[in-house]
């Protein structure tokens, strides 16, 4: 029989997931986007 995860553990796990996801997306964004002087997406940003 599978052990049930209680609600507070599920919430904690989901918050940890969101924190990890946010860090990953922020790192990728900061590595790719360098110039905010134009509304155009530069070729190096498209392929990043």
Automatic annotation (TrEMBL):
Gene Ontology cellular component terms for the protein in this record: mitochondrial inner membrane
Protein's membrane topology: Peripheral membrane protein
UniProt KW Zinc keyword: yes
Domain Tim10-like residue range list: 9-48
InterPro entries in the record: Mito_inner_translocase_sub (IPR050673), Tim10-like (IPR004217), Tim10-like_dom_sf (IPR035427)
Domains as described in the record: The twin CX3C motif contains 4 conserved Cys residues that form 2 disulfide bonds in the mitochondrial intermembrane space.
Name of this chain's protein: Mitochondrial import inner membrane translocase subunit
Organism: Sinocyclocheilus grahami (Dianchi golden-line fish)
């Amino acid at each position: 029989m599978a052990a049930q995860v209680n609600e507070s553990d599920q919430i904690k796990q989901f918050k940890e997931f969101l924190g990890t996801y946010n860090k990953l997306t922020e790192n990728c964004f900061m590595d790719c986007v360098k110039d905010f002087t134009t509304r155009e997406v530069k070729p190096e940003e498209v392929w990043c």
